[in-house]
Write a structure and sequence with these properties.
Blueprint: E1 2-6, H1 13-25, E2 30-33, H2 50-60, E3 65-71, H3 78-91, E4 96-100, H4 119-138, E5 141-145, E6 150-155, E7 168-171, H5 175-184, E8 187-190, H6 202-222, E9 231-235, H7 247-260, E10 264-268, H8 280-289
Parallel strand pairs: 1-2, 1-10, 2-3, 3-4, 4-7, 7-8, 8-9, 9-10
Antiparallel strand pairs: 5-6
């Protein structure tokens, strides 16, 4: 059972580094950040780049793992992303996990001047992006010609500190994405069923997650992979539950989801006057004491 956090890249580093150090002091397994150009209600405020932020965080921390939740093809190319990730993995001493997903229709989708991709095109691009990135992170030189992404003798020496490469945590709920998670992911990520966020119940959410886990198991079985050892990550804050209301509420929430099969829960570091507002003292109690009550 693991408890991790997300730190949004909204603070100038003089202040931000204190938050990353605090996350390590609180004992979180991993601290992730969003890999967006901007995001929802934070669009008109400060928002810094994910890779530079994680690079700085690698220098400000010692033990805690670091990662993205999630990187997508919306404004990334596998060749340049691979080079950045190999560098980040080296700087951090092998503490990086790449959360990766197909992307959506948010601000990232059109920031480079393109039309927003259809769901099918996002799936098509993701199906090319992940295998090519896998190769780029495991082979010294890669040439490939795809419909959307190509590489011509792309060199990535010396490769990742983590072997054969840094782990992928693949965010997916559809059939094609789950197949990619089964084939390439060391972990699988979900936020639950978005249709239930505002009008659903916690019980309905649990049932929806149970169905997603079953589909992941089927995707793994189809390629002869045992789903059991695979890490299952739930990014909280997007289900009808309110786990950060109290320590007891979180312990109950965590117990039900660990029993369902999740191995890692991710909570957002509190941000006042936002969708991620939470009582700091309650949050600290959850971070330092919740898992002890579940063991």
């Amino acid at each position: 059972m693991r408890l991790s956090t997300v730190i949004l890249p909204i603070h100038r580093w003089a202040e931000g580094q204190k938050i990353w150090r605090r996350a390590e002091d609180l004992g979180f397994h991993t601290a992730y950040t969003y890999d967006h150009l901007s995001w929802r209600s934070f669009r008109d405020g400060p928002w810094f780049g994910a890779i530079p932020t994680l690079t700085a965080a690698a220098g400000a921390t010692e033990r805690m793992r670091l990662g993205t939740l999630v990187t997508s093809p919306n404004f990334r190319h596998p060749v340049t992303l691979a080079k950045d990730l190999i560098s980040l993995d080296d700087i951090s001493g092998g503490r990086v996990t790449l959360g990766i997903g197909a992307g959506g229709n948010g601000f990232d989708a059109t920031a480079l001047g393109q039309e927003a991709w259809t769901p099918k095109e996002r799936a098509d691009r993701f199906a090319e992006f992940v295998p090519l990135l896998d190769r780029l992170l495991t082979e010294d030189a890669v040439s490939a010609r795809g419909t959307f992404y190509s590489a011509d003798e792309a060199r990535n020496i010396p490769g990742c500190v983590q072997r054969p490469r840094l782990p992928f945590a693949v965010a997916a709920t559809g059939p094609r994405g789950l197949k990619l998670a089964a084939r390439h992911g060391q972990a699988w990520v979900t936020t639950g069923d978005p249709k239930l966020f505002e009008t659903g119940t916690p019980e309905q959410s649990l049932e929806a997650l149970r169905g997603q886990l079953a589909k992941l198991g089927k995707a793994c079985a189809e390629i002869g992979r045992d789903v059991e050892p695979m890490e299952k990550v739930l990014l909280t804050g997007f289900t009808p539950d309110r786990p950060l209301d109290s320590l007891d509420a979180f312990v109950d929430f965590a117990g039900k989801h660990f029993e369902l099969g999740f191995t890692e829960l991710v909570v957002h570091m509190p941000i006042a006057d936002s969708v991620f507002a939470a009582d700091e003292s309650v949050f600290e109690k959850i971070a330092t004491g919740a898992l002890d009550q579940l063991r």
